[in-house]
Amino acid sequence: MPTLPAPASAASPAPTPAPVPGGAIAIVGAGAVGSWMGALLALAGHTVRLIGREPHMQAVRRQGLLLQRTQGSVTAFPEAGTELAAVQGAGLVLVCVKSGDTDSVARALAPLLDERALVLSLQNGVGNVATLQAHLRQAVLPVVVYAATALPAPGVVQHLGGGDLVIGPAGAMTHGTPQAALQHSRLQAVAALFTAAGLQVRVSSDAMHELWAKLVVNCACNAVSALAQASYGEMAAVPAVHGLQRAAVQEAVAVAAAEGQALSLPALLAAVDRIAATMPAQRSSTAQDLARGRPTEIEQLNGHVVRRGAVHGVATPVNQALLALVQLAEAATQR
Question: Where is the domain boundary, 181, 204, 227?
Answer without folding.
Answer: 204
